Automatic annotation (TrEMBL):
Pfam families reported for this sequence: adh_short_C2
E.C. numbers: 1.3.1.38
Entry's localization field: Peroxisome
Pathway where it operates: Lipid metabolism
Record-given protein name: Peroxisomal trans-2-enoyl-CoA reductase
Signal peptide: none
Quaternary structure note: Interacts with PEX5, probably required to target it into peroxisomes.
Function, as annotated: Participates in chain elongation of fatty acids. Catalyzes the reduction of trans-2-enoyl-CoAs of varying chain lengths from 6:1 to 16:1, having maximum activity with 10:1 CoA. Has no 2,4-dienoyl-CoA reductase activity.
Catalytic activity: (2E)-dodecenoyl-CoA + NADPH + H(+) = dodecanoyl-CoA + NADP(+); (2E)-octenoyl-CoA + NADPH + H(+) = octanoyl-CoA + NADP(+); a (2E)-enoyl-CoA + NADPH + H(+) = a 2,3-saturated acyl-CoA + NADP(+); (2E)-decenoyl-CoA + NADPH + H(+) = decanoyl-CoA + NADP(+)
SUPFAM superfamilies: NAD(P)-binding Rossmann-fold domains
Record keywords: Fatty acid biosynthesis, Fatty acid metabolism, Lipid biosynthesis, Lipid metabolism, NADP, Oxidoreductase, Peroxisome, Phosphoprotein
Length: 268
């Protein structure tokens, strides 16, 4: 267990912190003494989450679409004015929609690549230039997804997340000179608000899917947050450039074609 003051006075930005996994990460950092900033696109929902989170500690929020350079720069400016520094960036915002590859339009492909790869890069670049590089210190944790054997049924997000994993390796080396550590956490299927986005025919398969995962359950938001806390803490001081898979061994023994099969059944 981390001590209750493990992140005392650290300034932590959690993208997509209004819901699900990001909310849990924000809550855990607050309970361990950090000052936390959350951002996402929907300001009304962000505000409601911020009210709840602020009962756990010092919390700020700002609407920001991670795909828009101007939004990200305005967020960096707010953090600079309010806190003068940033210690930890958790790139959690993201998402996609299920679709067979042959039916993904240009717009759909670009939306998912922008959301998960380009938005993550933009956030990393802007926060590194504003804070981590001049500070000569910083920690970045990217939430990706378990894409070890590809992601049939969501090929766009598989490609985007693999891109983030490789970006993480490059930056772990390039930015080692600036004392910046960067890692990924790759969740399997996690019981969170994110799963509500999936159509009923897919949700109907969840019970069977849980049995097929070696640890016989979906992950919990706490499972993902615990991995993030570890990678962000000094306990991981010598860990950089890795992806920590949090999936109950789904990547080793789970029928990855399940999702694509359901999608194919819609068409036939
Ligand atoms: C067996 C067990 C298995 C289990 C299987 C479960 C695996 C779980 C693993 C992973 C779980 C998670 O990540 S859970 C997290 C889920 N959370 C999210 O996905 C939330 C964030 N997602 C989003 O915001 C959106 O999905 C995303 C498309 C990425 C970005 O939204 P935007 O507002 O930018 O874009 P939109 O305007 O909505 O859409 C842009 C275009 O994308 C395409 N598009 C968007 N939604 C679409 C849809 N549902 N179906 C087809 N196409 C779609 C269309 O071409 C749209 O253009 P038009 O046609 O012109 O409109
Ligand atoms: N749940 C699961 O099984 C898995 C989840 N993941 C990933 O973990 C992360 C969190 O997922 P989860 O909590 O389950 O899902 P949610 O849908 O609850 O969370 C996604 C969050 O990201 C925000 N967001 C999405 N796009 C943007 C954007 N362009 N700019 C700013 N914020 C954005 C959303 O807020 P808003 O709508 O207000 O913008 C929301 O708070 C996502 O990246 C997801 O893909 C990975 C593997 C499995």
């Amino acid at each position: 267990m981390l001590k209750s003051d493990a992140f005392k006075d650290k300034i932590v930005l959690v993208t997509g912190g209004r819901s699900g996994i990001g909310f849990q990460i924000a809550k855990d950092f607050l309970q361990l003494g950090a000052n936390v900033i959350i951002c996402s696109r929907k300001e009304d929902k962000l505000k409601i989450a911020a009210e709840e989170l602020s009962t756990y500690g010092e919390l700020s929020y700002q609407a920001c679409d991670i795909r828009k350079t101007e939004d990200v720069q305005e967020l960096a400016q707010m953090i600079k004015e309010k806190y003068q520094r940033l210690d930890i960036l958790v790139n959690n915002a993201g998402g996609q929609f299920p679709a067979l590859a042959e039916y993904i339009s240009d717009k759909g492909w670009n939306a998912v690549i922008n959301n998960n790869l380009n938005g993550t890069f933009l956030m990393i670049r802007e926060m590194a230039n504003a804070f981590f590089i001049p500070q000569k210190q910083g920690v970045i944790v990217n939430i990706t997804a378990e894409v070890y054997r590809g992601f049939p049924g969501m090929a766009h997000t598989g490609a985007a997340r693999a891109g983030v994993e490789n970006l993480t390796k490059s930056l772990a080396m390039e930015w080692s000179d600036f004392n910046i550590r960067i890692n990924c956490v790759a969740p399997g299927i996690i019981e969170s608000s994110g799963l509500d986005n999936y159509p009923p025919q897919i949700q109907d398969m969840f019970e069977e899917a849980q049995k097929a995962i070696p640890l016989k359950r979906f992950g919990r938001v706490e499972d993902v947050s615990n991995a993030v806390l570890f990678l962000a803490s000094p306990m991981a001081a010598y860990v950089t450039g890795i992806s920590l898979i949090v999936d109950g061994a789904q990547h080793l023994g789970f029928d990855k074609m399940g999702l694509a099969r359901v999608l194919k059944s819609f068409i036939s």
